[in-house]
Amino acid sequence: AGSWFLSAERAGLPLPKTRPAMAKRRNGGCRRFCTSCLLGLFGCHWTPKKGLKTSKCDYAWFFLLFCIGLLALAWLYVALVTLNDFHNFNEFIFQKTEWWLDWSVVMLCVTAMLVTYSSLLMVLALCLQLCHQPLKLHWLHKGLLILTLLIAVAAFVGLKLQWSEEWESAHIALQATGPFLHIGAVAGLTMLAWPVATCFYRLSHAALRSVILVLYLGAMLALYLAPLGIDSPCFLEQSQLPPKPALFGHRGAPMLAPENTMMSFQKALNCGLSVLETDVRVSADGIPFLLHDETLLRTTNVQEVFPTHGHAKATAFNWTQLQQLDAGSWFLQKHPFPTAWSLSEEGMAQARRQHLPSLKELLVEAKR
């Protein structure tokens, strides 16, 4: 074999490629293919171009991408922990448009898409840095990132203006989930150590290197000190925990039966609730009855029974007229909560028989 290779070399014949050379060529092809995919998905440059470098503007967009991703993730967390109160948002939209839809599903899906999108861009950027490729973000991605920023800011501003009490719910939820979020943040920052170190050593500007080093070390220091500020029941012994709060029935049990009906209050009492909360209005002839909205559109069939007075205020109807309304079928038609599907046939039939109760009926039931 050795003499054959020597003869072939002297004769000028092409030599067969050895295994290391073939493996190197194959690995190089795989790297080029991966690099092309990363460049194409991030900046729509499917072929690497020589001379392209990451500019200061590109680094600024990368920093903006990181901040937008964190903001979208924060809104996803707030939306998840306040999910139980999204019914108020659905009611608010119905009062404005008279169109019922479970907007919590829509909002969660949109938020999850925005978080996934910004996270994928972040992963692509980190992979490009590891492959020593420039961060040339495409203008379409820039536009979508600005749109993500506007949606997240609008969501936080709307929450602050319309439902500022929800921040208390988010704060309570943060006490329970704080330790787990801290573990996740530590894991995420640890995974970023290698890309940050690579970016740090590749930069030639001392100022940028200093900024990256200060930001990363500052984040590490903040995570190290974070447990000192976490006040969570997860850190308490069983004997140190305060007594469980008393359960209130907000409009009865609105996830199990039509709100503010006798069926709803009966189910709430069956669940062992100690307090019943309701909304009281007074009919045109002076009878106190139970209803949350100013009008009867959302929770009754007033549009069918009184077509010309459907948009009138509930207090404009007398008690005889109010007793003609069906206050339960809407619960089966609109499904304000996913639990509405769990009703048995008997429960559905009972819901269809519900009417607007008077305050006297509720007081009699509460005494029992």
Automatic annotation (TrEMBL):
PROSITE patterns per UniProt: GP_PDE
Membrane topology: Multi-pass membrane protein
Record key words, sorted: Glycoprotein, Hydrolase, Membrane, Transmembrane, Transmembrane helix
Record's subcellular location: Membrane
Listed Pfam families: GDPD
A Gene Ontology BP annotation from the UniProt entry: lipid metabolic process
GO MF annotations in UniProt: glycerophosphodiester phosphodiesterase activity
Domain GP-PDE: 245-368
Keyword Cell division carried by entry: no
GO CC, any one term: plasma membrane
Family membership: Belongs to the glycerophosphoryl diester phosphodiesterase family.
Protein name from the UniProt record: GP-PDE domain-containing protein
Origin species: Micrurus corallinus (Brazilian coral snake)
Lineage of producing organism: Eukaryota, Metazoa, Chordata, Craniata, Vertebrata
